[in-house]
Design goal:
Structural class: alpha/beta
Radius of gyration: 19 Å
Largest sheet: 5 strands, parallel
Low-confidence stretches: none
Helix content: 25-40%
CATH topology of the largest domain: Rossmann fold
Strand content: 5-15%
CATH architecture of the largest domain: 3-Layer(aba) Sandwich
Order of helices and strands: HEHEHEHEHEHEEHEHEHH
CATH class of the largest domain: Alpha Beta
Number of helices: 10
Distance between the termini: 16 Å
Strand order of the largest sheet: 7-6-5-8-9
Shape: globular
Oligomer: single chain
Number of strands: 9
Length: 310
C-alpha cells in the first residue's frame, strides 16, 4: 500500500501525480477482486462511512455504496428528505451531529461549490467529494483516467477531447487537472455559451469546432447537457446542439480509428451521442461504471489507511 500526501479528496487540482498514480495502482488490484466470485474484502471492517448526499444521484451513490460494501465498511446513508436539514438545521450542525456518532469517513455530494472543503475544515473525519456544484467530481475523473489507461496505456502525450456542457461540468474540470498531471493533452469543445468563464485558468486547449477538437484524439468524453442548470438563452435548441456538437459517425471521421468513446452518464441518446456510437465497439461507457467501483474502493481504502496511521 502507498501512503497519500492528501488527507481528503476534495478535487484533483493540486493533487500530485504520485497520489493519482497510487490511487490508480491500488484500483487495479481492486478491479481484479471485482472479477472474483467472492468480491468482499475485510479491509475496512470497523470503519464507518456516511454517504451525505444533498443532491440527487444514482450512479455515483450506488457506486460508492458498492465500494463501501465490498470493503466491509459500516454504511450510513443520509438523505435530506425527512431530515433535520429540511427543518432548518445548518450544514455544520448536521455534520457535527453525525460526527458525534463516531464516524470515520464522509462522502458528500452537494449543489454548493466548496462544501466538501468547508466540511474538511470542521471535522476530523475523512472527506471525499462526490461532486460539488460546478466545481469538481474527482472520483469520476479518476475512473475516466483509469479506463483510458487500461485501454491505451501510459497517458503521456495522449489527447483527450471533452465535448459538451463544459460550463456546468465538474467532471470536465476534474479531468482537466487529473489528465494534465499525468501528461495528457486535454481539449474542451462546446458552444461558446457553454464554456467556462475563465478557460485560460485550466490546463486545456479550447475549440468550438468539434471536427477540429476530435482530430487525432485518443479518447472523446461526451458530457450530458445539464438542462436543469441552464436558462433558455444558453442554447438555441437541442436539435442545433446535436447538429453541431453531437458525437456521430461523421464527427469521428476526424478522430483516430480506435478512439475511445466515453460518457459519465446518464446519456441523452441522439443528442450528445448517437446510439450506434454509445453502443459501438469503441465505447467503454459500461467499463467506466465497473471501474468506478474499483477506483472508489481505492480512494476509501487509501484515505482511511492514512487516517489510521495518524
Amino acid at each position: 500500500m502507498s501512503a497519500l500526501e492528501i488527507k481528503h479528496l476534495l478535487g484533483l487540482r493540486g493533487v500530485s501525480a504520485n497520489d493519482i498514480r497510487a490511487i490508480l495502482d491500488e484500483a487495479a488490484g481492486f478491479r481484479k477482486v471485482l472479477e472474483r466470485k467472492v468480491k468482499t474484502l475485510p479491509t475496512l471492517r470497523g470503519t464507518t462511512v456516511v454517504n451525505l448526499f444533498f443532491e440527487s444521484s444514482t450512479r455515483t451513490r450506488i457506486s460508492f455504496e458498492l465500494a463501501e460494501k465490498r470493503l466491509s465498511a459500516d454504511i450510513v446513508n443520509f438523505a435530506t428528505s425527512g431530515s433535520s436539514v429540511q427543518k432548518g438545521e445548518t450544514l455544520l450542525d448536521t455534520l457535527k451531529n453525525i460526527e458525534a456518532m463516531k464516524i470515520d469517513v464522509v462522502v458528500v455530494r452537494h449543489k454548493g461549490t466548496g462544501v466538501p472543503k468547508f466540511l474538511s475544515e470542521h471535522t476530523d473525519a475523512v472527506i471525499v467529494n462526490a461532486g460539488d456544484g460546478a466545481h469538481e467530481h474527482p472520483t469520476q475523473a479518476l475512473l475516466d483516467i483509469f479506463t483510458i489507461e487500461n485501454s491505451l496505456g501510459n497517458l503521456s502525450g495522449k489527447t483527450v477531447t471533452i465535448v459538451g456542457d463544459i460550463k456546468h461540468s465538474r467532471v470536465a474540470r476534474s479531468n482537466a487537472w487529473g489528465l494534465n498531471a499525468l501528461g495528457a493533452k486535454v481539449r474542451f469543445c462546446g458552444p461558446p455559451t457553454l464554456m467556462p468563464r475563465n478557460p485560460k485558468m485550466l490546463p486545456v486547449e479550447i475549440f468550438c469546432d468539434v471536427g477540429k477538437a476530435v482530430d487525432g484524439a485518443d479518447a472523446v468524453i461526451a458530457l450530458r447537457l445539464q438542462k436543469e442548470r441552464m436558462d433558455d438563452s444558453l442554447l438555441p435548441s437541442i436539435r442545433e446542439y446535436r447538429n453541431f456538437y453531437g458525437i456521430t459517425r461523421q464527427t469521428l471521421e476526424h478522430a483516430k480509428k480506435n478512439v475511445l468513446i466515453m460518457h459519465p452518464g446518464p446519456i441523452n441518446r441522439g443528442v450528445e451521442l448517437d446510439s450506434d456510437i454509445a453502443d459501438g465497439e469503441n465505447s467503454v461507457i459500461l467499463e467506466q461504471v465497473t471501474n468506478g467501483v474499483a477506483v472508489r474502493m481505492s480512494v476509501l481504502y487509501l484515505l482511511s489507511a492514512g487516517r489510521a496511521g495518524e
